[in-house]
């Protein structure tokens, strides 16, 4: 289906974008919706395609683009019903799986941004007009307060918006997969019915389109209905609302009550004084019945927190395509850049304003930001050697209402959601555009490396390097430069190390390695080619092989340990810029890790023990030498030819 123009009042429509329209997509488990944004807020040419009709996402996108006339498209953003972590996307409720970078190339885009669908829907909330929502109960939402979002469709989504310095920060969440919590005996019986099929029953199993069918099956058994009809979710809703079928009405009412409980749990967890919004495809189909259902009563049923819940408003989103608004806003921010100063950087710049006690708090936070986010105020105060009021005073100095508000802003700077995107540098870009794109692409790639680090592998690699008798680094071209950089770092740590960038020297040196040695082989492609012989020789020598290369590469399969660098520079690149920086970054990680490992108390004890053994051997050797010297002072009496024999003891000395 298509619609004409969809203008959202929060934007100021202006001239069309200089670089052409932007492609927007909202991908769910059942449908893929596409649109074009021709100017800020001007979203049109909306079309819905069934996911099942296409083998891959790229095919659906191409089908949409081929059936709609448009100028060249350079930028696109996708909201998808799935976690977005790294380059590879594999949908939970559909079989589509794809690489973001490969899809960008297939579609001929400069920028392809992919975000979770509820992150996009969350970001749409501040831009929705009043006519796009219907309030169901509650008072007036607190302006600038935290906003919560719950949506039931093919799955169950949960999200939130946190206000921060004039902008909104979307919380990435998979809250639909929390354990389902029954609120009465009937729901407990439904849960027991589900347990016969699923070991873990998530909220999504029941509070979703497929969940309506699950509730229906459970109630048929509970009500002892023999040979019940098999009904789909749309049929259940139709029979409940239009035919007044008692069983289907019971199913829908159970669904609404369960949704009320979940929404209230989100509200008290996030403190959503700005309100809770209900999205997804199920609730809008319930129409006026939803307002009369058990939803709001269950939302307010929180015991001692009843009064708290009664103040929080709940809204049903009625806008036809709200995710487009959110994903367009995220893409606009991405392409337009931003001048918000990172929170940790603000702390660094404000250090001169702190009292000595506050300075100790700042030093602790700058050194251990992630730990501080999870620690109570008593532990923060103890570690900073200050009082708890000093911690609160520090938070207020930073413009926060208290420790909780401070932690939220700190979290946005340390673990804030960074959209996975790639912006192609091309002819015609200004110098500033080139600089921003190169830096952004590098930062995004570094974040991917950080998020993909395997703790066990990294620990084992650092341990192996720390106890190696000798470490050799092999690489070619730009990777040869990385190998030489690594050799310098490890040599300064007191570890015998060498870097080889010539294939023949690598092969010869690899043949001399021992089982106590380590060969670190560096390759941005992971293809063996010139490295094949060297790798085989090193493997046969018994040395430990560590690869800095792509995880599924030929080199990774031959190595004992692999620290993965997943970055495709593209066939047109003569100098692998970003992957070289990523490899240097991993070398730094290893060097710092080895340095800390070798300076640990346990490692120092080992070295002291080793020195003690060597000293004992040396002292024993000196004692023997002294005795031999004393014997030399009293020559053995010579008898005949014996006097001409060499003094064996003295010779041994």
The secondary-structure class comes to alpha/beta
What is the number of domains?
A: 5
Radius of gyration: 33 Å
Give a short account of the largest sheet. 6 strands, mixed
For the largest sheet, list the strands in their spatial order. Answer: 1-4-3-2-5-8
Give the mean pLDDT.
Answer: 82
Roughly what percent helix? 40-55%
Please give the alpha-carbon distance between the first and last residues: 97 Å
CATH architecture of the largest domain: 3-Layer(aba) Sandwich
Spans of at least 5 consecutive residues with low confidence: 1-15, 337-341, 415-420, 620-653
Strand content: 15-25%
CATH class of the largest domain: Alpha Beta
- Say what the CATH topology of the largest domain is: Hexokinase, domain 1
Q: Which overall shape is indicated by the principal axes computed on the Cα atoms? A: globular
Instruction: Work out the helix count.
Output: 27
Count of strand segments? 19
Enzyme class: transferase
Keywords: ATP-binding, Cytoplasm, DNA-binding, Glycolysis, Kinase, Multifunctional enzyme, Nucleotide-binding, Transcription, Transcription regulation, Transferase
Protein name: Glucokinase
InterPro entries: ATPase_NBD, Bacterial_glucokinase, Glucokinase, Homeodomain-like_sf, HTH_RpiR, RpiR-like_SIS, SIS_dom, SIS_dom_sf
Write a concise keyword list for the protein shown above:
47% helix, disordered C terminus, 653 residues, Nucleotidyltransferase, domain 5, alpha/beta, 6-stranded mixed sheet, Arc Repressor Mutant, subunit A, single chain, SIS_dom, Hexokinase, domain 1
């Amino acid at each position: 289906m298509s619609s004409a123009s969809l203008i959202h009042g929060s934007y100021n429509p202006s001239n069309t974008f200089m670089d052409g329209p932007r492609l927007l997509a909202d991908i769910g488990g059942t449908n893929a919706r596409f649109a074009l944004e021709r100017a800020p807020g001007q979203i049109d040419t909306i079309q819905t395609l069934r996911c099942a009709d296409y083998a891959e996402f790229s095919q659906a996108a191409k089908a949409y683009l081929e059936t709609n006339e448009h100028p060249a498209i350079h930028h696109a953003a996708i909201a998808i019903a799935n976690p977005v972590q790294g380059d590879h996307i594999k949908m939970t409720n559909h079989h589509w799986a794809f690489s973001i970078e490969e899809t960008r190339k297939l579609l001929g885009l400069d920028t392809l941004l992919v975000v979770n669908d509820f992150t996009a829907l969350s970001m749409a909330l501040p831009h929705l007009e009043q006519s796009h929502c219907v309030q169901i109960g509650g008072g007036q939402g607190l302006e600038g307060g935290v906003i919560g979002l719950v949506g039931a469709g093919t799955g169950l989504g949960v999200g939130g918006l946190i206000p921060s310095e004039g902008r909104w920060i979307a919380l990435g969440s998979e809250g639909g997969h929390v354990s389902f919590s029954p609120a009465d005996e009937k729901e407990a019986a439904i849960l027991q019915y589900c347990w016969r099929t699923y070991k873990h029953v998530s909220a999504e199993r029941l509070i979703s389109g497929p969940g309506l069918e699950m509730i229906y099956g459970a109630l048929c058994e509970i009500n002892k209905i023999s040979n019940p009809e098999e009904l789909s979710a749309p049929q259940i809703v139709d029979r409940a609302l239009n035919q007044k079928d008692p069983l289907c009405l019971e199913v829908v009412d159970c669904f609404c009550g369960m949704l009320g409980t979940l929404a209230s749990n989100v509200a008290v967890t996030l403190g959503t004084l700005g309100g809770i919004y209900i999205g997804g495809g199920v609730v809008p189909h319930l129409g006026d019945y939803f307002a009369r259902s058990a939803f709001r009563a269950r939302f307010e049923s929180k015991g001692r927190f009843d009064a708290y819940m009664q103040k929080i408003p709940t809204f049903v989103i009625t806008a036809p395509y709200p995710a487009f608004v959110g994903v367009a806003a995220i893409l606009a921010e991405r392409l337009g850049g931003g001048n918000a100063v990172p929170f940790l950087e603000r702390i660094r710049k404000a250090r001169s304003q702190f009292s000595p006690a506050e300075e100790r708090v700042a030093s602790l936070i700058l050194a251990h930001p992630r730990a501080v986010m999870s620690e109570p105020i008593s532990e923060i105060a103890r570690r900073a050697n200050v009082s708890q009021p000093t911690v609160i005073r520090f938070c207020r100095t930073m413009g926060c209402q208290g420790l909780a508000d401070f932690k939220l802003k700190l979290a946005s700077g340390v673990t804030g959601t960074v959209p996975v995107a790639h912006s192609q540098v091309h002819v015609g870009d200004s110098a500033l555009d080139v600089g921003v794109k190169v830096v952004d692409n590098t930062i995004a790639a570094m974040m991917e490396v950080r998020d993909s680090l395997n703790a066990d592998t990294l620990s084992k690699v650092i341990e192996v390097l720390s106890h190696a008798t000798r470490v050799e680094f092999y690489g070619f071209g730009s990777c040869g430069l990385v190998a030489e950089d690594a050799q310098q770092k490890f040599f300064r740590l007191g570890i015998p190390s060498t870097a080889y960038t010539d294939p023949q020297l690598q092969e010869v040196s690899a043949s001399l390695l021992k089982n106590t040695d380590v060969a670190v082989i560096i390759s941005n492609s992971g293809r063996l080619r010139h490295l094949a012989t060297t790798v085989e020789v090193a493997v046969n020598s018994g040395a430990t092989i560590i690869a800095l290369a792509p995880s599924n590469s030929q080199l990774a399969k031959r190595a004992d340990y692999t620290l993965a660098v997943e970055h495709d520079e593209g066939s047109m690149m003569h100098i692998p810029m970003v992957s070289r920086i990523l490899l240097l970054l991993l070398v730094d990680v290893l060097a710092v890790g080895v340095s800390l490992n070798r300076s640990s108390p346990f490692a120092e004890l080992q070295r002291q023990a080793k020195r003690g053994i060597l000293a004992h051997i040396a002292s024993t050797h000196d004692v023997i030498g002294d005795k031999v010297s004393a014997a030399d002072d009293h020559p053995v009496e010579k008898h005949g030819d014996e006097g001409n024999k060499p003094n064996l003891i003295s010779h041994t000395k």
